[in-house]
Amino acid sequence: LSILLSLLVPTHAIRSPDCGGILTPSGLSYLAEVSKPHAETVLRQDLMAPTVPDLFLGSRERNQIDSVKVADLSLSLIPDAGLRLSIDVDLGVTPAPSTTKEMRLSILADLHVEMNPEGNLELVTSTCKPTVEETQSTEEMESKSSSSDVDKVINVDKICLEVSKLLLLPNEQLASLTAQFPITPSCQGQYLPLAAPMFSEQGITISLQTTFQVVGMGTPLPVSPVPFSMPEPASSSPYHLEPASSSPSHLTLAFSEHFYTSLFFALEMAGAFNMTIPVSRASQQGRSRECVFGGTALPHEGLGGAVCPAEKGESSPRVVLEEDKATLKLFLTVHVGAGSPAFQSFLSVNVDMSAGLLLSVASTRMMISAAAIEDVELSLAASDVGPVPADLLEELFLPTVRGEVPAQLNVVLSEGVFLPHISSFTYTDVSVVIHKDYVLVPCNLQV
């Protein structure tokens, strides 16, 4: 399907990121901490199962594992390679009915991230090195380190299989990153990883491309004028980001200007900006049989306005990001007419407007709302009632456009847009920082 879409939609053939994130060392530490209960559950279920082969090889008597407790689990970065997983497990082992031993099982495993054939990121074990030592025995309390059992060879295949099982849940969560998310009933979005993440001392950097489907069909997106890359701490970079190693946040998400433009373009393609503005009958200056629109009387019964995307070239919506400010530039055509249900237009007006955007985050969604319109330009597109002076156009349409268009935009945007996230995790302690050309979202993770 991806190949077919790339043929049908040429703009998708050039895959380039429009957003991404950096998981910091503090975020990695948090993930390790919340993973301990899961690791303990998996190891306890398998190592204490009576049908499982012995943990140790060469035992003359059967070793029965009575207890499994994860004492420590940590994840550390290996720049340009991946992660090192370290697990210390306290085992209670009963080699004979009358004796018990306490053993410390230590596992060191190197992990890296691959993209599987489905396009999902996947944690894979590179190397696995388990070791074990006896920490206490009811038979040999005085010489715990001299026990010959400590030198027994470990069943490496068995332990490393457990490590692979530990990765099943994280890989399910990583797969949830690429799930489609609804924006409107007819418009869905999806975040697609472009490559395996990059590992550095700063953290784990992942680049994503956002795609949109309208009624199930891929939407050709406007081409980004500037390729986007995740902001780096290097002073030579056009993007300035505090070093992740010194950041108190677990994760920093970044969204390019092109991301927001693509979002509004997809909404326009889905018809989200098409709206009908009914105008009720009223009287003005004694003209009781005339219909009032925006404070001026026109002699038409049942007058109303239909707002549609502009039918002129280069009319796609655009989002402009500047320091501490986001602006939506929207190009619409208002068709004014009468009649119901058969609407007949007799006047069309081009509306070029700019509105400030307010950005915030709630749970795993970015909330976007249009503030007051900052600038509106009206021009006559077509008229069956003769020429209409510019001042009359403003008198007719400006109050209604200023009031109705932002209000209906906010209805469309009220549900918010899902941020890139994995299942069971939400975002807390969030801030949204708008820079020129991109938006940063530092946040913490919460399972």
Report on this model:
- The protein is of the alpha+beta class and 447 residues long.
- The chain has 2 domains: 240 residues, Bactericidal permeability-increasing protein, domain 2; 123 residues, no CATH class.
- Strands 1, 6, 7, 8, 9, 10, 11, 21, 22 and 23 form a 10-stranded antiparallel β-sheet that branches.
- A hairpin with a 5-residue loop joins strand 4 and strand 5.
- The longest helix has 24 residues.
- This is Protein TENP.
- One of its GO terms (molecular function) is lipid binding.
- It comes from Opisthocomus hoazin.
- InterPro entries: Bactericidal_perm-incr_a/b_dom (IPR017943), BPI_fold-BPI/LBP (IPR051660), Lipid-bd_serum_glycop_C (IPR001124).
Order of helices and strands: HEHEEEEHHEEEEEEHEEEEEEEEHEEEE
The proportion of strand residues reads 35-45%
Shape: elongated
> What is the CATH top level name of the largest domain?
Alpha Beta
How many domains, as an integer?
2
CATH-level-4 superfamily name of the largest domain: Bactericidal permeability-increasing protein, domain 2
N→C terminal distance = 33 Å
CATH architecture of the largest domain, please? Answer: Super Roll
Number of strands: 23
Uncertain stretches of 5 or more adjacent residues:
1-13, 141-151, 234-246, 280-302
Describe the biggest sheet?
10 strands, antiparallel
CATH fold-level label of the largest domain:
Bactericidal permeability-increasing protein, domain 2
Radius of gyration computed on alpha carbons: 31 Å
Helix content: 10-25%
Number of helices: 6
